[in-house]
């Protein structure tokens, strides 16, 4: 209500309800609101707005005009937090960097705060703001607790920053994801969509396979290649079969939007019976899937024809990336008849996808990226494994890209598009300067693609490709999502 009252006053709208008038009277007594006849205005000594906290500073957002926003220092917030409606007193000193100081929180969005203790003071864990409190004497450095937003008294003790799992709680708290442990849907609340059963194509005889990391618990996609007809099948687990639109499960999954992977556990978007069982393409189990059937024109390196339909499939084998890498290197080791049947189509499919990849990279980029996988034992870090893109990764990537492109054609103009615009001239010029400092003799070419390809070629000569690719990626325009296909 307060924000609405002050916004009305700023807009010179004075049609207040009786409750609003009673509140205004209190602020007139405190000389925060000034009454002129039938009109009201906020005392020029003060400014009322919404607090927005950035990384190194805060903004007091004007209720009406963004041009009147004021920058605040983090040590001048007086216990106020992000999105609070605050009363600030202006500082009329031309030599001072501080233009206003927070006097009071008028409407607080947060009843509690997550803090840690350092040298006898509370500091907020997200913003790292020191709080004026005398209640820290009984705590040790690094203690983490939840306190109330008024008197800064303890609500709940969480642990210490030295605790192995404390980061998991902090991350979930800061990003408001603790509800994942609290809001759970029982297994019997998901509903199967019976309408699709009769129209599904039975593909259980086709030897589909999945290729995933060793640690994968859920298998989202599977592939099969019909060599004789040059036809690639890409199967995607049909989650919609079990999740009825508008159901409690659908609403909660929409709220979660994704699965969260923590060092010691996983918080799935869907109940584990779905994500790790019924909606996972488990080996030798009948599963529902959306299937792309792609007729490949191998000579011209394009999809000649595509179909998308609901099907029932059986994953004949789960493979790890490492195992398939050995197969693609013709190190077949021991295998059974079922595996041989799959290897017989994976090997020619890999050769085909290599050609598609080479053609695609004439317009795109090949970045050498790696991913660190942490191996834990009893919640403690035991080892770090560096996983790089290998032949098996690239095989799956190309299959998924072909399916994604066909999916986008079927969606047409309706959809959410990931937009990755070209970097501007300033960013590319800086990139050239940076790589030259590292000894890579590069120069600007006719266009962005030629320039980046040239930089990568030169970096190969100095065995600096991985490091230079990191710099190139940093120079690119950040991807964004849009309902408009901007290319």
UniProtKB/TrEMBL annotation:
GO cellular component, one term: cytosol
Annotated GO biological process: mRNA catabolic process
GO MF assignments: RNA binding; RNA nuclease activity
Organism superkingdom: Bacteria
SUPFAM superfamilies: Nucleic acid-binding proteins
Name of this chain's protein: Ribonuclease R
Domain RNB intervals: 200-487
Organism annotation: Aliarcobacter cryaerophilus
Pfam families the record matches: OB_RNR_2nd, RNB
């Amino acid at each position: 209500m307060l924000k609405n009252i002050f916004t009305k006053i700023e807009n010179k709208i004075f049609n207040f309800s009786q409750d609003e008038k009673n509140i205004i009277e209190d602020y007139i007594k405190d000389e925060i609101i000034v009454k002129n006849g039938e009109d009201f205005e906020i005392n020029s000594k003060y400014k009322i707005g919404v607090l927005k906290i950035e990384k190194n500073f805060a903004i007091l957002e004007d209720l009406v005009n963004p041009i009147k926003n004021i920058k605040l220092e983090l040590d001048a917030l007086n216990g106020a937090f992000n999105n609070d409606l605050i009363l600030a007193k202006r500082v009329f000193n031309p030599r001072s960097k501080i233009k206003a100081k927070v006097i009071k929180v008028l409407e607080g969005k947060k009843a509690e705060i997550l803090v840690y203790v350092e040298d006898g003071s509370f500091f907020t864990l997200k913003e790292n703001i020191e709080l004026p409190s005398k209640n820290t004497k009984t705590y040790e450095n690094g203690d983490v607790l939840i306190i109330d937003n008024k008197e800064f008294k303890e609500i709940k003790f969480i642990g210490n920053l030295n605790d192995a799992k404390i980061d998991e709680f902090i991350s979930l708290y800061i990003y408001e994801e603790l509800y994942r442990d609290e809001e759970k849907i029982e297994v019997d609340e998901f509903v199967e969509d019976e309408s699709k059963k009769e129209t599904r194509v039975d593909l259980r005889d086709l030897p589909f396979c999945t290729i995933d990391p060793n640690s994968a618990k859920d298998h989202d996609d599977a592939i099969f290649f019909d060599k004789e007809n040059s036809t690639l099948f890409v199967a995607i687990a049909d989650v919609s079969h079990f999740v009825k639109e508008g159901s409690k499960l659908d609403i909660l999954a929409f709220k979660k939007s994704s699965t969260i992977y923590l060092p010691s556990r996983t918080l799935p978007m869907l109940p584990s019976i779905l994500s790790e069982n019924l909606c996972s393409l488990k080996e030798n189990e009948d599963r529902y899937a959306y299937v792309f059937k792609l007729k490949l024109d191998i000579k011209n390196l394009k999809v000649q024809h595509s179909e998308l339909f609901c099907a029932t499939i059986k994953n004949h084998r789960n493979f790890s990336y490492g195992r398939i890498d050995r197969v693609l290197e013709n190190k077949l080791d021991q295998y059974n008849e079922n595996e041989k049947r799959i290897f017989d189509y994976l090997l020619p499919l890999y050769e085909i996808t290599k050609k598609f990849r080479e053609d695609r990279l004439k317009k795109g980029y090949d970045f050498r990226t790696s991913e660190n996988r942490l191996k834990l034992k009893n919640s403690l870090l035991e080892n770090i494994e560096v996983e790089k893109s290998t032949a098996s990764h690239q095989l799956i990537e190309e299959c998924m890209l072909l399916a994604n492109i066909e999916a986008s054609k079927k969606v047409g103009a309706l959809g959410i598009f990931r937009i990755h615009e070209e970097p501007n001239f300033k960013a590319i010029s800086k990139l050239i300067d940076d790589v030259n400092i590292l000894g890579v003799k590069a120069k600007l070419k006719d266009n962005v693609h030629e320039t980046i390809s040239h930089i990568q070629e030169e970096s190969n000569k100095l065995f600096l490709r991985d490091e230079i690719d990191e710099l190139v990626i940093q120079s690119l325009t950040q991807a964004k999502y849009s309902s408009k296909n901007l290319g």
